[in-house]
Specification:
Order of helices and strands: HHHH
Distance between the termini: 63 Å
CATH superfamily of the largest domain: Met repressor-like
Radius of gyration: 21 Å
Number of strands: 0
Helix content: 55-70%
CATH class of the largest domain: Mainly Alpha
CATH topology of the largest domain: Arc Repressor Mutant
Number of domains: 2
Structural class: mainly alpha
CATH architecture of the largest domain: Orthogonal Bundle
C-alpha cells in the first residue's frame, strides 16, 4: 500500500530554527524527523506530548509588566544597584 505524504510549512524565527537544528542533530534527528515524531505522539496520545500550564495571577502580572516595559522601552530600575537592592528586599516574599 502506497503511503501518501503532505508538505507542512511552519514559520519559526531563524535563531530558534538554528538552535533546534543543532540540538536535534546532536540527538541524531533532523527537524523533519522531530516534527514527524511530535505529530505521531499527538495522534497516539490524543494530546500534546508535554504539559501546558496556565500561568497563575502573579505570573500573568509579571508577564504584563514585562510587556509594558518592552512597549515603553523603559527599565524599572535606573541602575543595577537599584535592581539588586530590590531583589534583596523582596527575596523573602
Amino acid at each position: 500500500m502506497a503511503v501518501h505524504s503532505s508538505m507542512l510549512h511552519v514559520r519559526v524565527d531563524d535563531e530558534t530554527k538554528e538552535k533546534a537544528t543543532e540540538a536535534l542533530n546532536a540527538m541524531g534527528l533532523s527537524v523533519s524527523d522531530a516534527v514527524r515524531l511530535f505529530l505521531h505522539r499527538v495522534v497516539v496520545e490524543q494530546a500534546l506530548p508535554f504539559e501546558l500550564k496556565v500561568p497563575n495571577a502573579e505570573t500573568r502580572a509579571a508577564m504584563a509588566e514585562a510587556d509594558e516595559i518592552v512597549r515603553a522601552r523603559k527599565a524599572r530600575f535606573v541602575t543595577a544597584d537599584e535592581l539588586f537592592a530590590d531583589l534583596e528586599t523582596n527575596s523573602g516574599q
